[in-house]
Amino acid sequence: MAVIGALKLLQAQEAKDQTLKLLFALQDGQTVETVILPYDSGDSACLSTQVGCKMGCAFCASGMPGFIRNLVQEEIMAQLLAVRRIEQARGRQLKNLVLMGSGEPLDNRDEVFAFLQAVGDPERLGMSLRHVTISTAGLVPGILEVAAKKLPLNLAVSLHAADNELRSRLMPVNRKYPVEELVAACDQYTALTGRRVTYEYILLDKINDRPEHARRLTGLLRGKLCHVNLIPLNPVAELPYKPSPPECVKAFAAVLKEAGLNVTIRRRLGSDIAAACGQLRNLFCGDQIEG
Ligand code: SF4
Prior knowledge:
This protein is an alpha/beta fold. The chain contains ten helices and 13 strands. Strand 3 (20-25) and strand 4 (31-37) form a beta hairpin. Helix 7 runs parallel beside helix 8.
């Protein structure tokens, strides 16, 4: 097993489309996943910020074993350094970072902000924070803190439903921070930074992918400085959700476009490997799934 900096590479899986999924052991034996996503314009690395996750999103493999611990900034940085070495070795270029892997980055703010400071520091990595995205399940105090810092970061919010009843079922965090409060925090972020928010929306067959769901979403976001990213689900064997059929995805996007929203349909990457966030770790640590 290769040792890269403070991490031990336990497993690497490369998909046909060159998505590369890495499973690292930390010094205390816990494991985290890091994923490299291939794009023509430069690859993105999806870094983990926690071992496991507290958020309990219904469609997610990462949250299944529950929360174990926060990563410290050095462990987040070690993933980035390992990715840079691997990318160099395979002749590819890393361009963007997304803090989304396993864990909720805004639930580990001190370590995440310290990591970001090191990333942007010209004496250390000197990477522009314009190439970094924080992806959150919707922790409102964290969004407000990011807004107040006025960093040139990108903010992505996992929305997945525009009404509280459905969103609370899919994402328990919504019971604490309902949709209206979440969107108001995102508006505050836009007002303070002048930056648009990306709303991520995973389309789940017959759950949140019907025209009425699209209309509710347009009602919530119309006129805002935002972008909607529609994501076809990477199914998780242990969970009951299925990806929306392509015709539903297209119809959903059409409703949003007609209302003047900025929409993209994300390409599904790595679908021939255990590509949904958390799956590789769960496969490797089968005992933790059951526990
Ligand atoms: S989707 Fe993200 S926030 Fe939700 S349980 Fe999975 S890792 Fe946590």
